[in-house]
């Protein structure tokens, strides 16, 4: 009879331990789907962040391309304006020589505005060089050949 009683006492203990193990297993199974859902949410967020970053990168590359095109257009406009300026400088120098007359240049050195070369052309480009050929002592005017006459 003692053996039966001991079996009866041990049986509920084993059952209790088995029940606790099963409860733990159930809890783990309940938390695993939550973790899987969290992992899926994290992946979704990463995908969204990646697409957002790609969108920003595409927008920045387009903005860079527009800025480069704008700079190229401004450079062309600047070069066109410089050509016009040089033409006007040449015309001004021609009229200045006509106004000074031929006799003044042989008697004394002609009066020149600062930044003009001996031919009356504007030499006020950065560094005081010819705006056409970038030489410090060239003709500096129409048909600039790089000679050292200024």
From TrEMBL:
<dbReference type="Pfam" id="PF00038">
    <property type="entry name" value="Filament"/>
</dbReference>
<protein>
    <submittedName>
        <fullName>Keratin 88</fullName>
    </submittedName>
</protein>
<dbReference type="GO" id="GO:0030280">
    <property type="term" value="F:structural constituent of skin epidermis"/>
</dbReference>
<dbReference type="InterPro" id="IPR039008">
    <property type="entry name" value="IF_rod_dom"/>
</dbReference>
<comment type="similarity">
    <text>Belongs to the intermediate filament family.</text>
</comment>
<dbReference type="InterPro" id="IPR018039">
    <property type="entry name" value="IF_conserved"/>
</dbReference>
<dbReference type="GO" id="GO:0005615">
    <property type="term" value="C:extracellular space"/>
</dbReference>
<keyword id="KW-0416">Keratin</keyword>
<keyword id="KW-0175">Coiled coil</keyword>
<dbReference type="GO" id="GO:0031424">
    <property type="term" value="P:keratinization"/>
</dbReference>
<feature type="coiled-coil region">
    <location>
        <begin position="57"/>
        <end position="84"/>
    </location>
</feature>
<dbReference type="GO" id="GO:0045095">
    <property type="term" value="C:keratin filament"/>
</dbReference>
<keyword id="KW-0403">Intermediate filament</keyword>
<feature type="domain" description="IF rod">
    <location>
        <begin position="1"/>
        <end position="106"/>
    </location>
</feature>
<dbReference type="GO" id="GO:0045109">
    <property type="term" value="P:intermediate filament organization"/>
</dbReference>
